Amino acid sequence: MPPSALIDEFRAIVGEGGVLTGDDVTGRYPGYFMQRVEADILVRPETTEQVSQIMALCNAAGQPVVIQGGMSGWVRATQTRQGEVILSLERMNRIESIDPANRTAIVQAGVILERFQDDLEPYGLSFPLDLGGRGSCQLGGNAATNAGGMRVIRYGMMREQVLGMEVVLADGRVLSSMNRMIKNNTGYDLKQLFIGSEGTLGVITRLVLRLRERPVSSNTALVCCDSFDRIAKLLRHMDGALGGLLSAFELVDNSFYRTNTGEGRHPAPLGSDKPYYAMIEALGSDHERDRDLFESVLADAAEKGLFDDAIVARSEKDRDAIWGIREDLEHIVHDFQPFYAFDVSLPVGDMEAYMGEVTRRLKSIWPEGGIAFLGHVGDGNLHIAIGAGTTEDREQVESCVYEPLRPFGGSVSAEHGIGLEKKPWLSITRNPLERGLMRDIKQMFDPKGILNPGKIFAEEAS
Ligand SMILES: Cc1cc2nc3c(=O)[nH]c(=O)nc-3n(C[C@H](O)[C@H](O)[C@H](O)COP(=O)(O)OP(=O)(O)OC[C@H]3O[C@@H](n4cnc5c(N)ncnc54)[C@H](O)[C@@H]3O)c2cc1C
């Protein structure tokens, strides 16, 4: 079907305002690490029924479709090519219901994470997934990438928050698995296939999400330490002694800390001479009791020599100041040019050796290159910021980061996904049989290969 005929069909489904074309599409924000939107047709459905009709139409026409959520992803999974159609979830942004007794909510996939978190406040409930992209990412995008973030150590990844799901398949059929129970062992859990599928298996249109009690107390500390081994011991100590309250344990290295606390940037609560800094957070239900517990557990850790210095937040302002150092990426992106960002995982016990090897490889090629490690160390997840070489050197920089994962059995993607960015390196983490079965699943759900073609797999599935 020629594009003009397709546009008319789309307008008949979603109305005039639901279809954008030409400069209105190519002039949109292309997303992280992407230069330009190449596709020039964008459809913005409002209902599952409309998504179903769009997909049936595209499938019949063999029309490639790229699903876009909040465009906060880091692996170019929403990149488009000429001739593709963008299906944006931006108008499917309704919180349909919140059930306080069952502690569940039903949402459309385009609801922004931060808005959802805010809207739960009056109910005394919370949605524990939290990440730096919260102001733009969508819950559907969080599911499609199996997002992680700051609180995985306590609550798990997005996979653990999704109870039910509605998905429009490539051919337009609507798979409704809107389960509202925590327990439901009735054969294969189909929704799990779509979680982390990066828009290659179906369009997630609605979700049933698990909610938690809203924490009342929050205690935060910043500690510094001159050995990674002690940081790993501190993590275990805090997790064990806080009796389930530990909700974040984030690491930044000296390079990251110094960059963000440099002149005119964030104030440095602790001196900047230590190799490692950890942000520790405990969420609980009783201000006084939790504060006393937090401080005594920290004091105990100090006595055991598990860190060198610490500062405990006494106010919301202190707390924001500590988290600001961890969450602000602006200065890193500014100072580290050309900027390369990585997201890997490996066992905590292997992290120090890994960081040493990556640094050694990088510095042997670019002695002046910048490198900083940060991450959700409680989950074995490291982010690496690199500013080295030129934009032409991407493959060599990537090799410095990914090759050393092999001996540790690490993963090239802890939480960001594969997209276009990491597909040449997928084989480090997934063996031939795993990759083959993944392709079989893709073939089963999307035999014509119209959904997000070219993403995840080195060869196009079609
Ligand atoms: C400052 C910052 C910090 C971040 N920190 C973290 C972090 O700590 N942890 C983490 O995991 N991520 C992090 N991210 C990355 C990003 O926010 C997540 O990957 C997020 O889940 C992407 O959601 P999105 O709606 O923006 O999806 P998009 O970027 O729009 O899309 C991502 C992928 O999901 C697919 N997709 C989107 N919506 C749907 C849908 N409804 N149905 C099917 N497929 C869909 C797309 O096709 C694409 O493949 C961060 C990003 C930023 C900007």
UniProtKB/TrEMBL annotation:
Keywords: FAD, Flavoprotein, Oxidoreductase. GO terms for molecular function: FAD binding; oxidoreductase activity. It comes from the Bacteria. This is FAD-binding oxidoreductase. Belongs to the FAD-binding oxidoreductase/transferase type 4 family. InterPro entries: FAD-bd_oxidored_4_C (IPR004113), FAD-bd_PCMH (IPR016166), FAD-bd_PCMH-like_sf (IPR036318), FAD-bd_PCMH_sub1 (IPR016167), FAD-bd_PCMH_sub2 (IPR016169), FAD-linked_Oxase-like_C (IPR016164), FAD-oxidored/transferase_4 (IPR051264), Oxid_FAD_bind_N (IPR006094). One of its GO terms (biological process) is respiratory electron transport chain. The keyword Flavoprotein applies. Residues 35-214 form the FAD-binding PCMH-type domain. PROSITE patterns: FAD_PCMH (PS51387). Its cofactor is FAD. Gene3D superfamilies: 3.30.465.10, 3.30.70.2190, 3.30.70.2740, Uridine Diphospho-n-acetylenolpyruvylglucosamine Reductase, domain 2 (3.30.43.10), Vanillyl-alcohol Oxidase, Chain A, domain 4 (1.10.45.10).
